[in-house]
Amino acid sequence: VWTYPDGFTWMEMFQDESKFGLHAALTPTWNETAFYADYVLPMGLASERHDLNSYATHGGTWVAFRQPVLREAARRNGKPVKLTYEANPGEVWEEDEFFIELSWRIDPDGSMGIRKTFESPYRPGEKITIDEYYQYIFERIKGLNEAAKADGFTGQFAALEYMKKYGAFEIEKGESYKMNENLLSDDQLKGTKVDPKTDVILKDGKAIGVMIKGKPCVGFPTPSRKNEFYSQTMVDWKWPEYATPKYIKSHIHNDVLDKSIGEYVLVPTFRLPTLIHSRSGNAKWLVEISNRNPIWMHPDDAKKWGFQTGDLVKLNTDIGYFIDKVWVTQSMKPGVVACSHHIGRWRRPQDKIGNRWATNTVNIEGDGKGGWKMNTISGIKPFESHDKDSKRIFWKDGGVHQNITHAVHPDPISGMHTWHQRVRIEKPKEGEKYGDIFVDTNKSHEVYKEWLAMTRPAPGPNGERRPLWFNRAFTPDKTEGGCYYIPKEDK
User: What pairs with residue 170 in β-bridges?
Assistant: First the structure.
């Protein structure tokens, strides 16, 4: 409801039992989506759950292991627990364990075909444990088994024990930029043939490498195993004009903006260095530093409109508007305005009180015809708690929820939301106040259909849903007739 564009449509759906019969929110905190849930199931924060993470920090490759602190502390103190919630003072479920347990409750005898995907790889027919789940992953990471053995770890869970101790493992040391130059091994080359026209090395009909100056190199992860300036995939999937790189005039290109009526580009996605996406609302010292999201505007544009820092400005989007304050700064390019992420959290008077460091109290009214209004009743106030700092709150402004006024813009090729917005700036009318929001969800659906009409839908070659060579985290059956193919009767 808060992060996604067009949040009022989500609110309509969550309140319509014919669309959602039951809505369970799995969340560590109260939030705008949880307010509309039938069940709120508390999930752990970072220090209360297992997870894997890795970032593009340098030329190497590494993996890190997050684990519940209290569970691991109990294990090291000789008091191991079976399930993570047993070591949690709030009995909060660990999310991986939750879905493992849920699968066995839904399909206790395996007749639905769900349970089998949550069975132990080491104990056939038995429920997988969280340790087995991560051991299965870690023992398949190149070099990790050897590192665990060298460090003195033995037994079935050696790789897991290594990661529990160190928390991270470097897989490749700074050679990621040259992976394309790696040579295929003799085992990899068994049963291969080389296409005489392209030098692509094929195995069972699939490209696994390319001959470069007489050497069998791994190459790049493309069909040609080369860095493709020309992409046959774009041709095969009905976008031949983009087979070679070219500039695309987007929906916010300067040529499509009507300056005579005050149209600008709005950048709604930039991050402040003091906050973390939508995850730092309860971080009191960070919220103390950054607690409002004004409209950044270049002095030339501000002068044109007669705006000064702190003045109200109305930004009209495709589906409605929001009213914010101006911040005049040379940090912006003329013709472009920006409103940061993170800020503009809210709750209604009837909602459960959770975060009070960063949430406004708002009133929401619908006209029953797709029109929705939101206005701020009160800002942030000091409150009594076990934390003495809660009485020291001096800021009142909780910002404005901008994303809810954005229409859904699915990119015609990738399907991802295109966040940059074309907005029309004007001065607020008499009676319009800071934080006022309006959205017409009928209009939002029409805008969505306009963008959908720009797509060139699947199927692709041979009835494919998406190119087979595109990587994805979880890959379903790629054989013909499997998940990657659209049944003929559905085309």
Answer: 62
Please indicate, yes or no, whether residues 201 and 285 belong to a single structural domain of this protein: no
Looking at the structure, tell me whether residues 210 and 335 fall in a common domain: no
Whole-number Å distance between alpha carbons of 169 and 162: 9
User: Could you tell me if residue 247 is inside a domain?
Assistant: no
Beta strands in 44-199 (DSSP E): 51-53, 61-66, 168-172, 192-194
Q: 181 and 168 share a domain?
A: no
CA-to-CA separations, 401 to 5, 272, 288, 318, 490, in angstroms, rounded: 10, 16, 18, 16, 40
What global pTM score does this model have?
Answer: 0.89
What is the tens place of the pLDDT at every residue in 81-101? Answer: 999 999 998 889 999 999 999
Q: Among residues 156, 172, 188, which one ends one of the domains?
A: 172
How far is 256 from 247, CA to CA, in rounded Å? 15
Classified as helix, coil or strand, 70 is: helix
Peptide bond into 459 cis (omega under 30): yes
* Gap between the Cα atoms of 87 and 79, Å rounded: 10
> Do 472 and 444 lie in a common domain?
no
Q: Whole domain around residue 50: which residue ranges?
A: 7-172
User: For residue 153, what pLDDT is reported?
Assistant: 97
Q: Is 380 exposed, middle or buried (0-12, 13-18, 19+ CB in 10 A)?
A: buried
Where among 152, 172, 192 does a domain terminate?
172
Distance CA 312, CA 426 (A): 9
Structure tokens, 173: 């040391």
Please tell me the predicted confidence (pLDDT) of residue 488. Answer: 77
Contacts of 405 (CB under 8 A, 6+ apart): 315, 317, 319, 320, 321, 322, 437, 438, 439
Q: Please check whether residue 279 lies inside any domain of the structure.
A: yes
Inside any domain, residue 375: yes
